[in-house]
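The freezer alarm interrupted the setup, so I double-checked each line after restarting. Inputs confirmed:
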Amino acid sequence: MSPGGTLDRRAVVAGLLRDRGDLLVVTGLGSASYDVMAAGDHDLNYYLWGAMGSAAMVGLGLAAARPDRPVLVLTGDGELLMGFGALVTIALRRPRNLSIVVLDNGHYGETGMQLSHTGQGIEVSRVAEACGFPRVDLITQMEAIEALRRRIHAREALALATVKIAAENPPRVLPPRDAIHVKNRFRLALGLAPA
Amino acid sequence: MASAEAPSWRDEVYDVLKQVGVKHVVYVPDAGHATAIERANADADMHSVVLTTEEEGIGYLAGAWLGGDRGALLMQSSGVGNCINMLALPACARFPLLMVVTMRGDWAEFNQWQNPMGQAAEAALRLMGVLTWRADDPKDVRPLLHGAATMAFNGDCACAVLLGQRLIGEKEWVK
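Predicted 3D structure, all chains:
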């Protein structure tokens, strides 16, 4: 098997966002943002177009501020690797309502499919386990996605799941790039003032 | 200096953060922030979050603001360089960002390795669109931090208060 996996990233993300209810979503820049947009734009999505390496930490801050809501960070292996130290910061905080799903294709898909560290043997889920994440999953089968979706909504434990997806770039579906607009509509949807 | 009537500037940093409604103190430790960090850790109403590197705090505070909360990033001047690319987040999204930066390489510095980033810290912040103020006198800490917090949380600005090495005092290297 080539680095990464075999799962269809769009099907994985659509499956995770089904019946999303009160779920808050943060997306890492690049393909993860396109996948979430392809599953349907939503006021409670915060799409990052830059600030590479920050998605998990944005999720941590959001989860701390809103313990009443499930928070899902959807990002790629390359984006997570750039802020890899965040795993230990998050492991110490342990918010029960935060789930990080790493769409792991083992490559930097946005820049020409260069192999990433995960494509050369670094297994993120094992690192998360070593850091003390109470719930860690390595998912290679589509059948496991529904159970993961349910765990995200259960808010029972800080979780990280690596989902092994195929190294391919589906057609881009671009989310809005106006970060102020996306911020304000997110806050309005939570009943907060836009500024 | 410190007395019951006049709290030290070290306590005033935390007092101002509480007064402006900060609920998250995220930090990379520095001796100059020791009082604020100790008080944050002892405060049941405060999320006190130790970071591995300063740019983690910029993402964290953006997320907290999305969820309706205010926070502050405490760090040393050497960490400013770690934040440069991440400062695109408040610049593009106009997230409020309140940074309190203790200076090194600034005055009476024993360790010359602190000088390059210390000397460049304020200019680097301004290059990335962060508004800056410097406190070298204890009486300036409270008003400058209050003003920076006002412009951060009410004006959606990235704001940094630099606490000068003359304020913090000379580090004792050889005892």
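Quick read of the result. Chain B has a mean pLDDT of 95.
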